[in-house]
Design goal:
The protein is flat. The relative contact order is 0.10. Helix 1 runs antiparallel to helix 2 (29-40), helix 2 (29-40) runs antiparallel to helix 3 and helix 5 (89-113) runs antiparallel to helix 7. Helix content is 82%, strand content 0%. It is mostly helical.
């Protein structure tokens, strides 16, 4: 179990280090759940739970001063405890969301008390023109101020929390489990609602209605609707490009007429 706890901590640190490779989306639950399943030897369950938590955390993006729950730790621990206890998908959400909120507090503490000294040291290196020193402080500050904290929370939480979670699950009444299953069914709708709130406007609403109609009345699967959507997007982009080129050519002809 200690080896698994260490590996899960490393998985969480890998997810938090996604920005070393650009915005690679390593931190998303579908990826973290899959890697957790690999560590615990149950890849299908890991993928399924990652997809479930992906829907729950779909709207979790940092916008301005609004910081969402720490979904990496919530996904890894929620998936790990669900696999080890053999419980249903509702357990992943029951454990994952509170854990994500608690680890966010630890993450903020690290950013307030551990990260600033590295930032000030980076300012000193910048004043001296030492760009390697600045880069070194960024890496060290991110590692000790954020990444290591998340890894320790996940590793220690898994190592110490297995028996506690088993005991908790054994005393949960049946009506609570039924309620959690209903809640789990509602969370995907909430996730999609948050996503639509960010992207929905008058220009794209017709495409949402079109996709809904194709699914409900024609029975076209989601993959088929996605293919149609890509084709429509390509056609509209080409039409818009041709329109812009035509306006540029027309504008050039008008200039020639002036001479």
């Amino acid at each position: 179990m200690l080896v698994q706890a260490i590996l899960l901590g490393l998985v969480a640190m890998l997810g938090n280090a996604e920005y070393l490779l650009g915005t690679s989306l390593l931190s998303r639950p579908i990826v973290m759940g899959t890697l957790t399943g690999i560590v615990l030897g149950d890849i299908p369950t890991g993928v399924a739970l990652g997809a479930t938590l992906e829907l729950a955390f779909m709207g979790s993006f940092s916008i301005g001063a609004s910081i969402p729950p720490e979904m990496i730790s919530g996904t890894v621990l929620g998936t790990a405890f669900t696999i080890t206890t053999g419980a249903g998908p509702e357990t992943a959400i029951t454990v994952g969301i509170p854990v994500a909120s608690l680890v966010l507090i630890a993450k903020n503490i690290g950013m307030v008390f551990i990260l600033p000294p590295f930032v000030h040291k980076a300012d000193d290196y910048a004043a001296k023109g030492d760009m390697k020193g600045v880069a070194r402080m960024h890496f060290l500050g991110g590692f000790f101020g954020v990444n290591l904290i998340i890894g320790l929370c996940v590793g220690c939480g898994y190592y110490a929390g297995g028996p506690a979670v088993n005991a908790l699950l054994s005393v949960i009444p049946e009506w609570v489990n039924n309620g959690l299953q209903i809640t789990m069914g509602l969370l995907p709708a909430i996730g999609f609602g948050l996503l639509l709130k960010m992207i929905m406007n008058k220009e794209v609403a017709c495409f949402f209605i079109l996709g809904f109609a194709l699914s409900v009345y024609l029975g076209i699967p989601t993959t088929g609707i996605a293919i149609f959507g890509v084709i429509i997007a390509i056609v509209l982009t080409q039409l818009k490009s041709n329109k812009v080129q035509g306006e540029l050519v027309q504008g050039g002809n008008d200039d020639d007429d002036d001479f």
